[in-house]
Write a structure and sequence with these properties.
Elements: E1 12-20, E2 25-31, E3 36-43, H1 51-64, E4 71-78, E5 81-87, E6 92-93, H2 101-120, E7 123-124, E8 133-135, E9 141-143, E10 150-151, H3 155-173, H4 176-189, H5 198-204, H6 216-231, H7 246-250, E11 252-254, E12 257-259, H8 275-280, H9 303-338, H10 344-355, H11 358-364, H12 370-397, H13 401-415, H14 419-455, H15 473-506, E13 509-512, E14 520-528, E15 531-536, E16 543-546, H16 552-562, H17 564-569, H18 577-581, H19 584-589, H20 600-623, H21 627-640, H22 648-665, E17 677-683, E18 687-694, H23 697-703, E19 704-706, E20 711-715, E21 719-728, E22 734-746, E23 754-760, E24 765-771, E25 778-781, E26 784-787, E27 790-795, E28 828-835, E29 838-843, E30 846-851, E31 859-883, H24 884-900
Antiparallel strand pairs: 1-2, 2-3, 3-5, 4-5, 6-8, 7-10, 8-9, 11-12, 13-14, 14-15, 15-16, 17-18, 18-31, 19-21, 20-21, 21-31, 22-28, 22-31, 23-24, 23-31, 24-27, 25-26, 28-29, 29-30
Helix pairs in contact: 2-3, 2-4, 2-5, 3-4, 6-12, 9-11, 10-12, 12-13, 12-14, 13-14, 14-15, 15-16, 20-21, 21-22, 22-24
Length: about 900
């Protein structure tokens, strides 16, 4: 966002700064001469390097002249700053939820017209923020800025920019669900060559229609004649159509004599009568003066004649209605014909139904064109459907039946359902089902071969026979690749085994790396499918060494020594040994062997079976109390299987199992209290009892963290000088009972302040040796006054309690005591203790105060508070309790971090 202060601009009075744009800052101002509000955009002198881009934006807005943007009413320079004034025209800035569905679609069309115009001029707008959109009072939308405009290389650049902008605006204005179909339609309708869709041009008014052009009917005839000739089809001439004329329907007998209504002298056919003309005939009698004198004996019309005339009048009305309806439908069919192919099948079906309606065809008379339109639509449908069928055939040829079905479904959704596409889709779906079945059997064969490799890698049957696989070239290739990789793995394994067998015969030594340990010199005593028995140099007893224990570096070196030529050709082939040496876990964790990745359904069944077996083993280890083996087994299970196969319940159970061993070890190797020595650890029904001690200053600083504005420093190596506060960093709150002992010395006679605080963060209880906080000089209770400093036990908030009056309102805690006096530099031992039996304060082994009336919750942390005085601390010891549930929760967090992170 641009910054800088707004310069003075002649002729404009700034009202307030609205904020920054992509180029410059926005200022609401009053145009003094015309006394109207305008929107100023100012490019400060500090951004003179953006002047060219600013000028380009202004020129573009001038050329647009209000098409999707606010009109430019003035522009110029004020000192080194540039500005442009825009007529905001009462436009309102949009907020989420402002637009209904109709307004949201109108916004899309207006922005389409803007981007279409920019594209036609060869411009590509920059990032247009949603805040720049204005809803105009007269309807429609405009933007206040176009950002950093660039020359557009192709029309598709503008289309992509428009689609990206609509998506961003839609999400911010909460209209995305409404406009997303339009966005998708625009994306689909835009041509690959960057052409803008014509019907979007018409809908948005982006391209004006010419003043004179060929009417739809003439265009229709010319288009259909060309299409019909191209197909070699032309409908029969309407002159061949035979049907009763209105004259024949008017033939009737009259009182036994025969008569005809003849053509009028003017030669007009009765078909030229309008419905109104026909209605004139519907009278009770015929006036003889209106009759042809050559016709004699014409009597008044009978009831039958009147009915016939009525029927014809109704047909004439129906004909006119049908003609009007056809004109409307014809324009819709023409839209489909000239569009992207959407709805072609439905249009053909509708026209064929009309073609089968004789009444409808009769109403259209000679100038109907339904048959030609049907042929044209069918031709267009075949062209579009042919593209989808060709694409589907290409996918089938490459064995990608899934993509083929998706493409045909897309074609049916776009063009409409028809036998042409539906039959092809049905056939490919049958092939897809067969392929999935064959693929499943193939992957079962893969698993069978891999299990055989684990059982006896030197004698493996590599035959995988699956009925129907010959119909799918990709599956044939997959089987070939799989077997080739298995053969490579077995080849590398056999080379290494041969080399180690020679060492076994020679009783020679070899260097082997085990996991992360350093390499060991061992003698190979015996080889089998799972590993080898070895004897370390300098030892008598042999031990079992499994293949999966060998480090990556050892595997690589063994391959290099056993097969120098193979290593030179592909030095990474040793990684394939993971599939064989690491057992089943190697099948899931090896990313480089693509052909070993079996389909999810087969793998899921295998993993589920093996996972169930492993969980049963863990339950047995828990039942016999072998917690050490249980923790190791849980770690192996988590390492073996992908993390996503475990449900939340199973993860929780694994964490519980893994943490059982941790609870037995106490704080050993936990690195929780880095400087403390654990002198006691015990488990009761509800608590974990812990005893800790810090024996010198350096160790104290590792676990006791100073508070804000506190100062702490080492005095030599064995003591700490603290001024302010410090608290113990603990992973679990202390509960029920807590005792803290400090050995140290005070440094100030008037303000000793060696104070311990128990139950921090809950209901803190202060144990003070020489309490003298700032702003407090005494405590008075029931007429007795104690001057500070003194020793006391009180809630931390008790320091704010006002002295009581004589005989009234005694303090809710014991009155502090002044003895014994503390001398600076003298070593003292202070012990603060609180439990269900009460709180006590001891100095140098003598209890000087107790507090038994407190019934508040006992839980929280522990700290030291000196109220700004400096004290020396030589050692600290602590006895406390942790709630069993909280301790277990902490263990589970540790287990979760160790297992899943």
């Amino acid at each position: 966002m641009s910054g800088g202060s707004a310069p003075e601009i002649p002729g404009f009075q700034p009202l307030h700064i609205r904020g920054g744009g992509d180029l410059g800052i926005w200022i609401e101002a009053r145009q003094v001469r015309l006394d109207r509000k305008v929107l100023l955009k100012v490019l400060p002198a500090s951004e003179v390097h953006l002047e060219e881009e600013f000028s380009r934006e202004v020129r573009c807005m001038v050329e647009l002249d209000g098409t999707g943007v606010l009109r430019v009413i003035d522009e110029g320079r004020a000192g080194s700053a540039r500005y442009v004034a825009l007529d905001e025209a009462g436009g309102k800035r949009l907020s989420p939820g402002d637009l209904d569905e109709v307004e949201a679609r109108s916004l899309v069309l207006d922005m389409y017209r803007l981007f279409r115009k920019l594209s036609s001029e060869g411009w590509l707008p920059g990032q247009i923020p949603v805040e720049s959109i204005r809803s105009l009072p007269g309807g429609g939308f405009a933007v206040t800025e176009l950002g950093r405009i660039q020359k557009s290389s192709t029309s598709s650049d503008g289309q992509k920019k428009l689609i990206e902008s609509l998506r961003r605006w839609g999400r911010h204005l909460e209209i995305y669900d409404v406009i997303s179909p339009m966005i998708e339609e625009l994306r689909s309708a835009s041509g690959a060559d960057g052409r803008w869709p014509e019907y979007w041009d018409r809908a948005s008014g982006a391209v004006d229609s010419p003043a004179h052009k060929v009417g739809p009917f003439n265009y229709l005839l010319m288009s259909f004649i060309v299409l019909a000739l191209a197909l070699g089809v032309w409908w029969s001439s309407t002159s061949d159509m035979t049907r009763n004329t209105p004259e024949e329907e008017f033939s009737h007998s009259n009182s036994g004599s025969t008569g005809e209504i003849r053509e009028s002298e003017g030669g007009e056919d009765s078909r030229s009568k309008t419905p109104l003309d026909s209605q004139d005939l519907l009278v009770g009698e015929v006036d003889s003066r209106d009759l042809d004198p050559d016709i004699e004996g014409v009597q008044s019309t009978s009831e039958e004649e009147t009915l016939t005339l009525n029927t014809w009048s109704e047909q004439e009305k129906k004909r006119e209605l049908n003609l009007l309806r056809w004109l409307e439908q014809r324009s819709e069919f023409l839209e489909v014909l000239s569009g992207s192919g959407a709805g072609l099948a439905e249009a053909v079906q509708m026209l064929e139904e009309l073609e089968r309606d004789p009444e409808y065809l009769f109403s259209l008379e000679q100038d109907h064109e339904i048959h030609a339109l049907i042929m044209a639509l069918k031709y267009q449908y075949q062209l579009h459907a042919g593209e989808f069928l060709r694409g589907a055939r290409e996918y089938v040829a490459s064995d990608d039946h899934q993509q083929a079905t998706q493409l045909l479904r897309q074609g049916i959704a776009q063009l409409g359902s028809s036998d042409l596409l539906q039959e092809s889709l049905d056939q490919i779906e049958i092939l897809l089902e067969q392929k999935e079945e064959v693929s499943g059997l193939l992957d079962e064969g893969f698993l069978r071969v891999l299990r055989n490799c684990l059982a006896n890698p030197l004698n493996v049957d590599l035959t995988i026979s699956v009925r129907g696989i010959e119909n799918f070239s990709a599956l044939l290739q997959r089987r070939t690749d799989f077997l080739s990789e298995v053969e490579e793995v077995l080849h590398v394994h056999s080379k290494i085994v041969s080399m180690l067998s020679m060492l076994e015969s020679d009783r020679g030594y070899v260097s082997l790396g085990i996991g992360l340990e350093k390499s060991l010199e061992v003698r190979v005593d015996e080889l089998d499918s799972t590993g080898m028995r070895v004897t370390r140099r300098g030892r008598r007893d042999s031990e079992k060494l499994e293949w999966n224990q060998l480090s990556a570096e050892t595997r690589k070196r063994l391959f290099r020594d056993a097969d120098p030529d193979g290593f030179a050709g592909n030095p990474d082939r040793w990684q394939n040994l993971s599939v064989l040496w690491d057992g089943e876990s190697g099948w899931f964790s090896h990313p480089d062997l693509a052909s070993f990745q079996v389909i999810p359904e087969v793998l899921d069944r295998f993993v589920l079976r093996r996972k169930t077996e492993d969980l049963e083993k863990a339950q047995n280890l828990e039942a016999v109390g072998d917690r050490s083996s249980l923790q190791l087994w849980v770690s192996q299970m988590v390492e073996k299987f992908p993390v996503e196969i475990w449900s939340p319940e199973e993860k929780f159970q694994l964490e519980k199992w893994w943490s059982l061993q941790l609870g037995d070890r106490g704080l050993e190797n936990w690195d929780i209290f880095g400087g403390a020595e654990m002198t006691g650890w015990a488990k009761t029904d509800s608590f974990r009892e812990i005893e800790l001690s810090w024996s010198d200053g350096e160790k104290i600083l590792l676990d006791w963290i100073p508070g804000e504005e506190s100062q702490v420093r080492l005095l030599g190596k064995s003591e700490v000088v603290l001024s302010g506060s410090a608290r113990l960093k603990t992973p679990v709150e202390f509960v029920d009972a807590l005792e803290v002992s400090i050995v140290g010395a005070v440094m100030m006679r008037e303000r000793p302040n060696l104070n311990i605080v128990l139950w921090l963060d809950r209901t803190p209880l202060l144990f003070g040796a020489g309490i003298r906080p700032q702003g407090r000089s005494s405590f008075t209770s029931s007429g007795e006054t104690v001057l500070l400093p003194a020793h006391g036990i009180m809630p931390l908030e008790g320091l704010e309690i006002r002295d009581s009056k004589k005989g009234e309102d005694p303090l809710p805690f014991p009155l502090p005591v002044m003895s014994p006096r503390l001398n600076p530099g003298n070593v003292i031992q202070m012990v603060a203790s609180d439990s269900g039996e009460g709180a006590t304060l001891s100095l140098n082994g003598r209890e000087i105060l107790d507090y038994s009336a407190r019934k508040a919750e006992r839980s929280g942390g522990v700290g030291i508070e000196t109220f700004g005085s400096s004290v020396v601390i030589r050692s600290i010891s602590l006895k406390g309790r942790w709630d069993e549930a909280s301790w277990n929760q902490f263990l589970l967090k540790k287990a979760s971090s160790a297992l899943w992170m």
